[in-house]
Structures are given as C-alpha cells and as structure tokens.
Amino acid sequence: MRWQDGRRSTNVEDRRGSRIPGRVKGGSIGILLLALVGMYFGIHPSIILNMGESVQVSQPGQSGAPVEQTEEDRQLAEFVSVVLVDTEDVWKEQFRAAGQTYAEPNLVLFSGAVQSACGFAEAAMG
User: Fold this and answer.
1) Sign of the torsion angle spanned by Cα atoms 104, 68, 124, 25
2) Which of 55, 76, 96, 126 is the most buried (most CB within 10 A)?
3) Mean pLDDT within 68-93
4) Backbone region of residue 42 per phi and psi (left: phi > 0; alpha: psi in -120 to 50; beta: other values)
5) pTM beyond 0.70
6) Per-residue H/E/C for the chain
7) Is 29 in contact with 71 (CB distance < 8 Å)?
8) What are the residue boundaries of the structural domains of the chain, listed by start?
9) 99-108: pLDDT as tens digits
10) pLDDT band at 88 (very low <50, low <70, confident <90, very high)
11) Is the dihedral of CA 112, 114, 120, 126 positive or negative?
12) Using CA atoms, how far apart are residues 46 and 59, in angstroms rounded to an integer?
C-alpha cells in the first residue's frame, strides 16, 4: 500500500511558520535564581547567565505574515500523519489486550522552537 492512500491521524498539529522569537516569560528571574544556586555550588554565574541569552520560544497564533509551506512540507506533514495513525492503531490494540485504555498522543510539527507540555523544545533536539 502506498502511504498516500492511508488513513491520517487527527492528532497532528502543524505550528511550522507560526513563530515569533521572544524570551520565555519569567526567564530572566529564573536564570538569575539558577545563577545564585550555581554560585552556591561553585559554578561561575556567567556560565548560567549566558545560557539565557539564546532562549526563545514559538508563540503560535501571534505571528506576523504567515509563512507559505512548500509542497514538500505538506507531503511530509501528511506522511507523518499516516505513520502516526498506524502507531496509534498498534498501541490501542496492545493496551486493549492488556486491559488498559490508550491515550492518543498529540504530535506537534514546528520549526525553530516551541513551548511544549514538558518545557522548552528546539527543533535541534530531535
């Protein structure tokens, strides 16, 4: 079966192109507190303070002009959606066999950086 003919997951959110770089709210205070803790443990504060200079987040829904996606970008998003629905099907069955309920994941496509449910995430993180 060709992947183009497959079902697609509804649990894919495409945030690519919806980014405005900006500091993490409360980031300066957090970095300062980390610097103080670092000093306590003998870490030079400049090391920690310099970490905060590159922290930026994606803020969906607040972008200026929308970024036009290429056909390749659309194809990749569809491919990911087909793979995800297959994964969801397999895990639903595995959980059902174990008498459990599978909670479907939400997959977020993004470029640059984004605030995730478990913290700051960059595209370079994998």
Assistant:
1) negative
2) 55
3) 90
4) left
5) no
6) CCHHHCCCCCCEEECCCCCCCCCCCCHHHHHHHHHHHHHHCCCCHHHHHHHHHHCCCCCCCCCCCCCCCCHHHHHHHHHHHHHHHHHHHHHHHHHHHCCCCCCCCCEEECCCEEEECCEEEEHHHC
7) no
8) 6-21+56-125, 23-55
9) 999 999 888 8
10) very high
11) negative
12) 28
Opening angle at CA 118, ends 116 and 122, nearest 5: 50
Nearby residues of 68 by Cβ (< 8 Å), 6 or more positions away: 17
Token output for 25 = 């709210």
Q: 109 with 77: CB under 8 angstroms? A: yes
Residue indicated by tokens 């309920």: 101
Q: Residue 4 corresponds to which amino acid?
A: Q
